[in-house]
Protein 1
Amino acid sequence: MIHVVHHPDYVAEAPPGSRYRWGKNGLVRDLLIERGDDVRWHGGMHMPRAWIEAVHDDAYVAEVIAARVPPAKERRIGFAVTPPMALRAQAVPGGTYAAALVALDHGYAANTAGGSHHALADTGAGYCVFNDLAIAANRLVEEGTCARVLVVDVDVHQGDGTASLLAGRHGLATYSIHAEKNFPARKARSTLDVGLADGVGDDEYLATLAATLVPLIDRFAPSLILYQAGVDPFAGDRLGRLALTQAGLDARDRWMGALARARGLPIASALGGGYGDLLEVAHRHVASIFAVAEGTGVVARA
């Protein structure tokens, strides 16, 4: 049985003029509902404002919560922060935090949203408002639930916001494997960055992931992994520059789950990126959740 966190505020209508295609979170939810007893559902929560402010600037947090984000920041985010978007922005980090707590009890849990790795201290960016990964990781260490948290980001885009927000914080480390020439143009510095050339496929990707991530895990010895499980390294992704097949994505996620299991580490995943036909992308996210679960031994291959 896979433990999944969802909050109704994840599913909201697109703001006027949005460049981002909404609806993915609802489709992921619906596809998981179809799996019946394979999934155990957990409710999410709105992240307390003080916990968000521990990572993001107070003034920016106030702008979002009041749905009064300046136009320049909204352009950088890619959509208007309407009142429903403000509620969603508070629910998503609460869901990643909740998934982490469930994972500590059950080994693995997935959030049906999240992975907002481009959000910075004083602004959102790249379709990300608040950085759920950084907020959740920081809170888990700050409150003493975890001694060390490692954010593993396999999205095709570098996790620049997560890297910058968590840099220098005790008990926190970041790993990003991404297409080097893809967005963002100006990269931040993660604890470990692995930039890949355009067109890298399954074999080279998986070999590079193993060769770089395993030593970091063994050196840092995290208490928990937060996994930004973006499916945009897929060869047909609209915003990707890598060339993984669906089988390669599945192998990546099974390997990640198996590595966590072998090291005795709980792992909590967030969706991350995926761009193209919404239903196809939603199916990739669901496949990712089940592949991680298979690797951890929670479920057999679907």
Protein 2
Amino acid sequence: MKLQLLAGVAAMVGLTGMAHADGFYNGGFEAGTTGGWSSGGGYRGGVDNVGMLPSQFLPGGSLNNDNGNRGAVVDSSYVDPNLGALLGSTVYSGKYSYRAEDTTNGGYATVISQKVSNYTDANIYFAWKAVLENGGHEENESALMKLTLTDDTTGQLLISRSYNAGFTGSGVDSRFASEGSLFYTPSWQVEQLSIDQSLSGHSFTLSLLASDCQPTGHTGYAYLDGFGAVTPPVPEPTTYGMMLAGLGLLGYMARRKKSA
């Protein structure tokens, strides 16, 4: 009888632990808002890229002076104003994504961040795209994207993606293409962290920083989508249709120009 009682108590404790395990809220922005996320921003003019951290622009940070109002949730009909069809879909899955920072210059930065505690799912996924304008500046002064996934339980940085639009091109990698003065990722970059026994039950924070250049004359921004435990599905067929229509229009215009 005592063994059965102990077993029942153990089962209840196990279920209680599962009930308190947290997941992501609005990770794909499908509520059409930034609910579940913390956001902030501020002026980065005169601040070098070295040592610039997402936390500095969130509420309470040393560079925070706004609520991230230059960032925006965008829907699947949104077309990137600087690259159009070259950037392709601005939403990876579902109907919405988030654009960190606006699409013009000014020397500002925007950050969005979410923390999840007692995480027990098997994976963490998220997807991103970036657009960084090359203004002929050195790497330390150029438009910047910095994305980090941190294990808050241990303090370990698990995923770090940091790119800038330095004039030599050394601030980006093969993920990026270029068009004029813009470095950009034409494909969504999907990140995955497998949660093994050593990570299960830990707390994690994902943060994305996107920033204009330090001399303030060139733009930098990034898109984020699909932060959660399940592999984000591929873009909806309607999105592909829009992309193909845009590419077809570009081809038609080029042929007309050549004929003329």
